[in-house]
Specification:
mainly alpha, two-stranded antiparallel ribbon, single chain
Length: 155
Amino acid sequence: MERGKENRAFCAAYLRTMDPEQAAEAAGREDGFATLALKSIRRRLEKMRSAAAGELRREDALRRLAQLAFGRANDAARLALNPRDVDPGALDLSAVAELKVTDKGGVEVKLVDRVRALETLCGLLEERGGGGAEELYRALEDAAGQIGDEDGYGG
C-alpha cells in the first residue's frame, strides 16, 4: 500500500476506533503508537477532525434529537425482557441512556429523557425566530423514515 494511502487508512481507522493498534492493523502498519506520534499523522488527523466537524450540520442535530424524542424503544424492551436470547449488536439501542446488569442476571434499561430531547429540539427551532416548523417537519420525516427503514416498514 502506498504511504499516503496507509496514512489515510490509519487516520480514518483511528478516528473511528480511537485505538492506535487497531488503526495500525487496518492500515497495514506495525506500531500504532509510533505512527500516531508522527507529526504528519497528527496534522492529517487534525485536518480530518476539522473536516468532520464541518460536516455536522444543524439538520443533523435536529434529525437526531427528533429520533431521540419520537423513536421507538422496542429493541431496548426486547433486551430487557430477554437478555439471553438477543444479540445486542443487532439491536438499535439509540434510545438507551443507561444499561445495567442486575445481581440476578436481569437487565435494567434507562431510556433517554424524551421530554428533555423535545425541549432541546424546540429551543433550537425557536432560535431561528419561529421559522423552525419547516425544519422540525423535515427532521421528523427523516427520523420517521429511518425508524421505518429499521423496522422494515419504511418507504
